[in-house]
Amino acid sequence: MNYLREGACGSKLAGCEKGMGINMNYTIENEILSITISTRGAKLQSILERDGTEYLWQGDENTGPDKAPNIFPYVARLTEGKYYYNGKYYEMPIHGFVKGSELKVIYYTKETIVFFMSNNTETRKMYPFMFSYLVRYKLDGKKLYIKYEVINQDDKTMYFGLGGHPEFRVPIEDFLQFEDYYMEFYDKKDLMRVGISENNFVNGIDKPFSLRENKYLDLKHELFNNDVIILKKMSKSITLTSDLGRKGVVVSYPQMKYLGIWHKPKIKVNYVCIEPWTSLPSREGITEDITKQKDLISLEAGLSYTNTWSIAIL
After folding, report:
1. What is the domain count for the chain?
2. What average pLDDT score do residues 264-268 get?
3. Which CATH number covers residue 265?
4. Structural domain range at position 281
5. How far apart are alpha carbons 185 and 270 in whole angstroms?
6. In what order do the strands lie in the sheet with 33-38?
7. How far is CA 54 from the centre of its chain?
8. CA-to-CA distance for 274 and 168, rounded, in angstroms?
């Protein structure tokens, strides 16, 4: 379906007049799940099972307000917060500007919602391209599909990265502990950890990343003392669960090249982020020319790019 051709307030958009509000929440639901999303960044606010189980971290005094930012047009950090393009330097916040932008709802049914933004005066200061960016959330039973679409509205090639950043509650069930959980990787790959400097930039020193029984990563807070774990050549699906409980989540990301696993370093917090990414942060000490950064997506004028990933409850 071409949502842009449907128009901003088509007949399938229930309560469309509410889409003009700032930082509003919308809900899609079925007989199993209720999903709440904010217009600010099209960010997930809640993944609530009908029995009252919340799967998304709701925050506390030790964490910020973001529960599940959408990442665009750059993943993670840029050296000195800037990059180079066509003879000019541009500044960009960590994980790009979508997470702080107000998106419009252009399609809304009981089980599907689509958010939209395009370039404007503020984005062009950071990112000199004309584009449309859409995020679609669609429920199907126990699974939530997240689809990103980027349309190059410019007359030149655009370069970007994107991804997700959901923060999941751990423990999901209150009678368990953080350390009772593990992540299960389904495909036996030559798993590699991307080398990251103390300043959280790529340093080029990638190393094999071992798993228990070549399959399991046992959670403990000390895993994140040196900040994010970034993996490549990894399984395209990962399960977060515990043998001592009944509930868990499965995150699948068939088109993503990298996976970030993170919680705030050197502190005991009850969440873990599972972050599928298309690209990496910039290299240590290098202000990247985005036309030459190899893992960025290059999208020619007039073309579109889509990437779909999913979150399912067990």
Report:
1. 1
2. 92
3. 2.70.98.10
4. 3-313
5. 21
6. 25-29, 33-38, 44-49
7. 19
8. 8
